[in-house]
Amino acid sequence: MGLTAGLGGEAPTAGGPVVLAAAVPARGGTDNVGNAAHDTVSAAPMPAHLDPWEHRLLDDPNLLGDIAFAIGGPFHVMYPPRVAHNIREFRAAFERAGVHGFVYYGKKANKAACATRACAENGAGVDVSSVGELTGALAHGIRGDELMVTGPAKADELLWLATRHGALIAVDDLAELERLAALGSPAAPARVLLRVLPAASASRFGMTSDEIDGALALHGDHDSILLEGFSFHLSGYDAVARAELAGELIARCLHARTLGHPATTVSIGGGFGVDYVPADAAAEFTERVGRQWFHSGKSFDSYYPYHFPAPGPAMLAQILHHDDLAGRLRDNAIRLAIEPGRALLAHAGCTVFRVQGSKTRHAHGQPYRLLTVDGSSLSLSEQWFDSEYLPDPMLWPRRPGTPTPTSVGAATCLDSDMLSWRRVPLPRAAEIGDLLIYPNTAGYQMDSNESSFHELPIPPKVVLHDASGDRFRWARDGS
To answer: Structure pTM?
Structure first.
C-alpha cells in the first residue's frame, strides 16, 4: 500500500477514469499492526512543498484569522500569480524545444474564475466540456478560438455555441461529427479534432481506426467541417507512452493531408504530474505504511503519486525529447496542444478548516487526537477516489508544543466522512478554534466533489492579491 509515481493518473483531462498509483505492499504486509519495527500510532510526516506566497500567508499574524472570521466557515484560498507562473513554464518548455505549442487549461480541475482569468491574461486557452464551462470561460476573458471543447456525445447547444465561437472541438464519435456538419457552414466551418482511441485501451472515449477512416470520409463530403488534427488522452503519467502515441498522430495528420485536410494540430491531453512532497517523505511512507497509522485501522489500495520527480513542464520536456518528437513536430509543421488541469494549478491554492471539536482516542496503547472540523471530505476530493489526501495539513496559529498524532473528521453524521484517516504528526495538540490548512488543493481537490450535504454551505473561494510591501489583500472569487 504505497506511493508509486510512475503508474498514477490524475482526474481525467478529456474524460475517462481516474487511475491512482498502483499499490505497493508495505514491508511486512498492509496489516502489519503488530510489526514491532514500525508499530507506532503516529504516521511518518508528509510535509508539502510550499511556495513563498504560502509562507507569507502562514507567517502573517492576522490574515488567516481575519478571513476565517469574515467567512464564518471553511474556505479555499487561490493565488492566481502561481497559475500564471505555471503557464509560463509550460510555454517555456515548448520554446526551448522549438515547438509550436499551445496550453489549454482543463477547467474541470477547478471552477475558480480567477484561474480562467489568469489563462486569459497569460496566453493560455481553456478546455471545456459543458455550456456552463464554455460561457464561464468567455465571461472571464477567453476568446472563442482559444477554447477546446471535449467530452463524449456533446449536447447540441454546446456544439452550436462552440461552432458559433470558432472553438476547436474534439469529436468523440461519428454521430457527433454528423451533427456538427449540420451546424457549420462553408464560410464558418466547425473546427474539429478527431479523438483517437489508443490501441488496447478499454476507455469508452475516442474512435477506433475504422471509425477514424469513416470520419475522414465524412469530412470529405462536408465543407462545413474543417479537420485540424487529432487528439488522445492517456491515463497515468507515462511520458514515453504520450510521445509515442503523439508520433502516431503525426502520421495520421500526414495521411489526412493527402486527403485534402489541413491537419496541423495534435493534442495529447493532460496527465502531467504534480510534485506535492519530498522524495524522502514519499519513500518513507511507501516503506513503512500500514493500518497502524490510520484511524480505525483503515486501509487503502492505492494513492495518488504525491512525489513526482519530473512534474508538469519537466514532463512535457521529456515527452518532446523522446525519439525527437520535437523535431518531427517541427519538420511537419504540426502544433502540439496540451490540456493540463492539476498541473496548471500546482501550488496555486489551499483549503482551510476550523477545528470545532477534539477527542482523545487510543490505538495500540498509545493516545492520539481525533478532531472534528467545520466542513466535510467533499471539499477534499481524494476520498472521491476511495483514497487519502496525503500532504500534511498545517496548524495555525503556529506556536510550540508537543508533537501529536492526529486524525481529522468532518462535521457530518457519517462515520466514514474523514478528511485524514492517517494520524498526521501535527507539531502540537490542536485546540478548538485553530485553523487546519491543507496545502496544494487547487487541482481537483477543493471543488470537484463539493455539495451542500446537511445543508452546510459550500466553502467559498478567497483570492489573494499582492498589495504594497509584503502584504496581501483578499476578496471572494467571482465564479
So the answer is: 0.91
